[in-house]
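Worked example (supplementary).
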Amino acid sequence: MKKTLIASAIAAALVAPQAFGQANNFTGFSLGLNANFVSASTERNPGSNKSGDTTQIANLEGAYGFSMGSSGALGLGLTYNLGDLKAGTLSGTEFKGKDMYSVYVAPGYVLNNAVWLYGKLAYLSMKGEASPPTASANFDGVGYGAGARASLSRNVYLQVEFMQSDYNKKSISGVDYKPSATTGAIGLGYKF
Amino acid sequence: MHRTLAATAVAALLITLPAFAQVHPHIGWSLGLNAHLATTATHFGGAGISATMGATSHNASLQAAYGLPLGDKGMLGLGMTVGVGDLEGGSMRLAGTGLSFKTRDMYSVYIEPGHVLAASTLLYAKLAYLGARGEESYGGATFSKTFAGVGYGVGSRTMLSRHLYLQFEFLQSDYEWKTARTGAFRPVSTTGTIGLGYKF
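After joint prediction of all chains, the assembly is encoded as:
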């Protein structure tokens, strides 16, 4: 799924910019900075324990918006987290997510060229680290959510979003970990 | 804080209802139904250990609100929500026995200042007083306590037609520490919301 999503995003970015006009204020490249409020949970087996924690974390977002008719927009983008995500401590073992990124598609509807309401489907990846002793594994998963992006001026936008993240189960040092999280985000960005 | 917020909300409604004209579509009474996706981290201290449980779950809520105008483009929303369904707060082993926690009977009373953009979309911030019953299950028995807390978040509400609105929101909820049977608990959660409502 990871390769398919990334290939689709790159192919669409290379092929489509010439084919679509600037039909609304949400098409084209944009860069943003988001503040994320995250509560994460990690299911651990054996033991059927569910640990969790809360983190505030920032991420960078780069995206390209395609026009879909006069009132539609399709966003393709990437996010990269600027920090680690705490996902719970149990029996002295802390679990956290590092090097987190997402690749997403976000179809939506543009209202009066001022507000874009969108749904989001994302491929997620992170390095899950348990310590002590420190050991890690790469986790991937799926995120889904919804949000609204509003133009504050011709080039500046404000964005509000929530996303549910569900990662696949992976084993570290004989313990199965299955992380999930709910993220609320507020962000500012620049549309080129 | 609960009484002060509730009294402020009621007083504002009684005083201001007749005084304001309908200057933009978010002014006035509304009723809504929300679907919530939430992850809760429950801090626990007791029996000589401290740990944080956590779980992801979903529930719903009913929302009633009144929007007061703040100039041509501003609004102050006053409202309340009542939760439908429980939220899991995680599980762990305590002295070899399973311990789990959930929050039930959730409600909130909130104020919500916002700004109206073109296309009848309101961007708002929210500050809420939260109430819930926290229930621990340990060794087959359950025990509950009432919890109070504070919620803060942001959201957007868009009129899809003259009376129908769609809303997206996230809320960070911080409850107080309360001692139950096995120890003290403090639930914290992040909730994503999508809702549909009717504006009268």
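Two points are worth noting when inspecting this output. Helices of chain B lie at 2-16. The CA atoms of residues 34 and 136 of chain B lie 26 Å apart.
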